[in-house]
Amino acid sequence: MYEDDARAMHVAMLAAASDSAPAVAGALTVPQRRDMYFKVVRAAAFSKPDEAARFESIKQAFDGKECVGLCAFGE
Predict the structure, then answer these.
(1) Which of residues 47 and 69 earns the better pLDDT score?
(2) Which residues contact 65 (CB under 8 A, 6 or more apart)?
(3) CA angle (66, 34, 62) in 5-degree steps
(4) Which residue from 8, 22, 24, 60 puts its CA 20 to 30 A from 37's CA?
(5) Contact call for residues 72 and 46 (beta carbons, < 8 A)
(6) Is the Cβ–Cβ distance between 41 and 56 less than 8 Å?
(7) Residue 68: φ, ψ to 5°
(8) The whole model's pTM is what?
(9) What angle separates helix 52-62 from helix 30-45, to the nearest 10 degrees?
């Protein structure tokens, strides 16, 4: 039962991270985004196949090179 609860929490947290990644990425500087991108790539390497789409959307959010909005304040 605990493993099922932990898995459900993991899936929910991954979904939240995927949904909010564009907003978070927009507030980071380009070097900060790049750092997060590589952390997500490493995490995705150990993920389950059913998590691939979520990790891909997170990677896409942090792979952007444009710096507009909040990002510009950190530069």
Answers:
(1) 47
(2) 30
(3) 65
(4) 8
(5) no
(6) no
(7) -130, 160
(8) 0.83
(9) 160
